[in-house]
Amino acid sequence: MALTSSFFAVFMLLFTTMVIVSADGGYGTAPATEKPGPAETENSLSTTLGIQGTIYCKSGSEFTPLEGAVARITCLSVDKRGNEIAPFSILSDATDNKGYYLATLFPSEMKHNWRLKECKAFLELSPSETCNVPTDINNGTSGYVLAKHRPIKNKNMIMFSVWPFYFQEDKTSSNGY
After folding, report:
1. Which among 141, 162, 164, 157 is positioned nearest to 66, based on CA atoms?
2. Which residue has the higher pLDDT, 77 or 27?
3. How many CB atoms lie within 10 A of CB 75?
């Protein structure tokens, strides 16, 4: 119960931070009183982070899994002294035939024992010539803040799940405009 209460408090802090950060549309300077996010609370120096989600093609009211699409994960990190480091990004594996992707960030990829402060997932690439316009459904273009996670103990991994992202058809090219 205490773990659930602690996680809820951290989640609410992240949600409040997300609302404040989203007002300027990006990664502003964090207030000095900010508490660590989920990635920091789980000893991210020795744990692999996994980010999973799905990407679809939205055509009218139909949604089709988009095979071969890619998501980008961009993270802010802090050094040993708590100073923010420039954001860095990784790309997911291409989606499978069900639109599923997985991105992994291994501890060895973190330079100089940096700690993750906040990560966002974005739509990055569509392999389709007709369904390649990114949408902001579930913050696909503005960035879905990674907050909700669960441990996968047998793989020493923390898994974050992202709500589905959607590309849509380019309506202007089909009408000749």
Report:
1. 164
2. 77
3. 21
Give tens-digit pLDDT for 2-52: 433 343 333 333 333 333 333 333 443 333 333 344 444 344 446 788 999
Tokens of 85: 């480091």
Token pair in block for residue 84? 């923010």
- As given in the structure block, the two tokens for residue 95 are 């989606």
Which residue's entry shows tokens 């071969």? 68
Structure tokens at 173: 């090219």
* Alpha-carbon distances of 150 from 48, 62, 106, 118, 135, rounded to whole Å: 12, 31, 16, 16, 27
Answer whether 134's CB lies under 8 Å from 167's CB: yes
Please give the Cα distance from 143 to 51 (Å, whole number).
Answer: 13
CATH fold of the domain at 2-23+37-171: Immunoglobulin-like (2.60.40)
Three-state DSSP state, 61: coil
Q: How many residues does the chain have?
A: 177
DSSP per-residue letters across 73-136: EEEEEE-TTS-EEEEEEEEPPPP-TTSEEEEEE-GGGSGGG-EEEEEEEEEEE---SSEEEE--
pLDDT of residue 43: 43
